Amino acid sequence: MKQLTEGGPAVRISEHIYWVGAVDWALRDFHGYATERGSTYNAYLVTGEKTALVDTVKAPFLGEMLARIESVMPLEQVDYLISNHAEMDHSGALPQAISLMKPEKVIASTTGVSALRDHFHLDQEITPVKDLETLSLGDLTLTFVEARMLHWPESMFTYVAEDKVLLPNDAFGMHLASSERFADELPEWVLDYEARKYFANILLPLSPLITKALEKVRGLNLPIDIIAPSHGPIWRDPAAILTRYAAWAAGAKVRRAVIVYDTMWGSTAKMALALAQGLTEGGVSVKVMPLKETHRSDIAFELLDAAALLVGSPTLNNTILPRVGDILTYVRGLKPRNLVGAAFGSYGWSGESPKQVAEALTAMKVELVGDPLTAKYVPEAEALQHCAALGRQVAERIKERVGEA
After folding, report:
1. Which domains does the chain have, with CATH numbers?
2. Residues recognised as catalytic
3. CB 385 within 8 A of CB 373
4. Each residue of 222-278: pLDDT tens digit?
5. What is the share, in percent, of the chain residues with pLDDT greater than 90?
6. 12-61: per-residue pLDDT in tens?
7. Which residues 6+ apart lie within 8 Å of 324 measured at CB?
8. What is the dihedral of CA 177, 248, 235, 201, to 10 degrees?
9. Which residues pair with 309 in a beta bridge?
């Protein structure tokens, strides 16, 4: 067996399955989502009478994955390569792995076959598998569960019956680099924060499909002792993440409002603080998030169970400030549900921005409370009183929707 050159040995996660992935300590951005704690690209070696590698890693981490596989067995003993998801943080090393391992078969979902071909233009034949089709490793059985749009059209889960392990790729994961491989080895607050942030920034627009997927898995009556996703730690207590996903996918809201704004000379900031005061007086907790100091992915995190979104911008060149446009575009793509909201902003000689913000919120199906609120140049006491009054109105609407408690 070859001596390890990088990354450390494989980690056994069950009787027949090893983690052979890679840790990306340096990752700080994932498609515009801030990943302050890095990430992992998890690949799993399933060792029966025959052996299957489920997913690979991002291409630059090929050596780390290979070293871990070789701590268990020679590369040429891998019989099958299985791609649960074609996105290149999980399939990037697939062409090189095929070349080195020369597997008996490369397997993907029916949609995954064309996705991999379009990504890599492979000469290698890829074997498609249908929903609930099985693969025998001799003494082990793999079941493939179609999970379309979780979060790409070709996504699927692989279930290892004898070990009661679900390998769901990007579902139930998080961006978190750590030396610990299991969720129960990490602080609960870190798990909750990173799992929420991942759901809010990647999976939120798929919430109805996630609810259906959870119902589908429950309906299959598959006993699951371990959930091993493709980012972050492995769950030896599946209920810990399944319960969270069920609640987040259901879109449950709490009595909290998020105020997002940008400001040029502080006037729109004054309006934001007055709105916050009114919301607080109305019995609603508030998160004020100035865009100069706040990353878009942190705003998505706060919106996951917030009941209201209020957005403010002064007017520049007859339109909203660029950072406000950025967050409105980002949040619209995440398709948050069941929000009330309001638009506000100061202006000098034109003042189009609050109306434009209101139009953007309406396009997101946010229920607007009141008309867009404006203040000329620096808001005086009367203008700030109007802001506080609007905050109280929004608070009342939140309580009508969410309840008093």
Report:
1. 11-250 (3.60.15.10), 256-396 (3.40.50.360)
2. 31, 85, 87, 89, 151, 170, 198, 231
3. no
4. 999 999 999 999 999 999 999 999 999 999 999 999 999 999 999 999 999 999 999
5. 94
6. 999 999 999 999 999 999 999 999 999 999 999 999 999 999 999 999 99
7. 260, 261, 262, 291, 311, 312, 313, 353, 357
8. -20
9. 258, 341
Q: Taking the alpha carbons of 68, 73, 76, 82 in that order, is the dihedral positive or negative?
A: negative
Crossing angle between the packed helical segments 267-281 and 381-402, to the nearest 10 degrees: 40
- pLDDT, tens digit, 9 for 90 and up, residues 61-104: 999 999 999 999 999 999 999 999 999 999 999 999 999 999 99
Q: What is the dihedral of CA 157, 160, 165, 171, to 10 degrees?
A: -10
**Three-state DSSP state, 366:** coil
366-400 burial: b if 16+ Cβ within 10 Å, else e: bebbbebbbbeeebeeebbebbbbbbbbbbebbbe
Q: What HEC string does 86-118 produce?
A: CCHHHHCCHHHHHHHHCCCEEEEEHHHHHHHHH
- What is the separation, in whole angstroms, between the first and last Cα of the chain? 62
Contact 143, 161 (CB under 8 A): yes
The burial class, CB within 10 Å (0-12 / 13-18 / 19+), for 9 is middle
C-alpha to C-alpha distances, 97 to 20, 59, 154, 278, 395, nearest whole angstrom: 13, 10, 20, 59, 56
Q: 252-262: per-residue pLDDT in tens?
A: 999 999 999 99
Length in residues, the chain? 405
Residue 3 has what pLDDT? 43
Structure tokens at 216: 């589908």
Neighbours of 87 (CB within 10 A): 19
**Is residue 232 a contact partner of residue 263, using CB atoms and an 8 Å limit?**
no
Predicted structure pTM score: 0.94
Q: How is the beta sheet containing 226-227 ordered, strand by strand?
A: 134-136, 141-146, 156-160, 165-167, 226-227
**How many whole angstroms separate alpha carbon 286 and alpha carbon 307?**
10
Q: Residue 349: is its pLDDT beyond 90?
A: no
At position 191, the amino acid (one-letter code) is: L
82: three-class secondary structure by DSSP: strand
Strands, E assignment, 245-319: 256-261, 285-290, 308-312
